[in-house]
């Protein structure tokens, strides 16, 4: 099927063909949002240093060049699968399935090496390997990729904020304006500069230039609303996480976005390079595995 222009603009689609090198995917594809086909976007995103220490790894890039190749270890049958006599639970079937980056396993994620098969209903990618069949929620996968990118970017906002030529205004009640005025420094640490403008208003002077295009004002409004809603003490770490989730959802492909084979393979390659490739930032599973044994049992090719 034809790829909608809005989907293509949000995807980088290098040449087809997939082999195994997750480290190469991390090296080659760090530093830019997984957001654009260079030919349609008018250029590639600039490269940036890779993550270090506990920072998320495997963020994606719009940079041109050879496509990174999917890598990973073959999985043993999932715990709780038909082989073990239990009910299958995809969120528990892979190492490091928890949603937090701090829970990412050391020494690799064990993400399977996958070969592209196709797309179902414009929403799920179908892939396979020697262990069986895999279904991938394309929105959840893209959201995870973008989350790890934005999470890292929010850790270094100071040098990447842009001053707005035409500031926009945020309006609040007197009580909310007074509360927000006491937390402007927190927003500034995330790269968003608000300036009081009368008793109930603020001018937005700057925000990070890598905010999803067309969503900048809504993102600033949502970040400010989150700061206001939090009654407990808030810190930059929590705001960083929440803002990265907001950005990742808005920047990701949606259900019913048709992808070409090349775009689907690129999505799988960048998912394999993530530090936590098994759940989206909201905790929903990205990947469901149906083993060869489970398939054979469904068709009564095996009886035990």
Amount of beta strand: 15-25%
Please give the radius of gyration in angstroms: 21 Å
Helix fraction by DSSP (H/I, runs of at least 4): 25-40%
**How many angstroms does the end-to-end distance come to?**
40 Å
Which structural category fits the helices and strands? alpha+beta
Quick check: average pLDDT? 72
- Tally of helical runs: 10
At the fourth level of CATH, the homologous superfamily of the largest domain is MutL, C-terminal domain, dimerisation subdomain
SSE string, helices as H and strands as E: HHHEEEHEHHEEHHHEH
CATH class of the largest domain: Alpha Beta
User: What fold name stands as the CATH topology of the largest domain?
Assistant: formyl-coa transferase, domain 3
- How would you write the strand order of the largest sheet? 1-2-3-7
Q: Sheet bearing the most strands, described? A: 4 strands, antiparallel
Question: What's this, in brief?
Answer:
With 304 residues, the chain is an alpha+beta fold. The chain has helices at residues 5-9, 22-29, 38-41, 138-154, 174-181, 184-189, 216-229, 236-251, 261-272, 292-298, and strands at 115-120, 124-129, 132-137, 161-171, 193-196, 201-208, 287-291. Helix 4 (138-154) runs antiparallel to helix 8.
């Amino acid at each position: 099927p034809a790829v909608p222009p809005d989907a293509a603009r949000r995807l980088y689609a290098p040449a087809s063909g997939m082999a195994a090198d997750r480290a190469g995917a991390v090296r080659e594809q760090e530093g830019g949002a997984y957001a654009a086909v260079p030919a349609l976007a008018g250029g590639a995103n600039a490269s940036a240093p890779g993550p270090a220490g506990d920072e998320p790894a495997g963020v994606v890039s719009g940079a041109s060049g050879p496509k990174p190749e999917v890598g990973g270890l073959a999985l043993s049958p999932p715990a709780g699968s038909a082989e073990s006599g239990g009910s299958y639970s995809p969120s528990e079937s892979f190492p490091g399935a928890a949603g937090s980056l701090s829970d990412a396993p050391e020494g690799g994620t064990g993400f399977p090496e996958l070969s592209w098969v196709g797309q179902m209903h414009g929403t799920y990618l179908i892939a396979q390997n020697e262990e069986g069949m895999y279904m991938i929620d394309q929105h959840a996968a893209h959201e995870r990729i973008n989350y790890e990118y934005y999470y890292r970017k929010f850790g270094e906002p100071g040098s990447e904020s842009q001053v707005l030529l035409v500031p926009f205004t945020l309006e609040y009640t007197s009580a909310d304006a007074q509360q927000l005025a006491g937390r402007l420094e927190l927003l500034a640490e995330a790269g968003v500069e608000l300036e009081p403008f009368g008793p109930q208003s603020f001018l937005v002077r700057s925000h990070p230039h890598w905010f999803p295009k067309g969503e900048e004002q809504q993102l600033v409004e949502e970040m400010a609303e989150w700061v206001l809603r939090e009654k407990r003490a808030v810190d930059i770490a929590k705001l960083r996480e929440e803002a990265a989730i907001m950005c990742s959802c808005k920047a990701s492909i949606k259900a019913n976005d048709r992808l070409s084979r090349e775009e689907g393979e690129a999505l799988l390659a960048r998912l394999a390079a993530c530090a936590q490739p098994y759940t989206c930032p909201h905790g929903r599973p990205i990947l469901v595995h149906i083993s060869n044994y489970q398939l054979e049992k469904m068709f009564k090719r095996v009886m035990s």
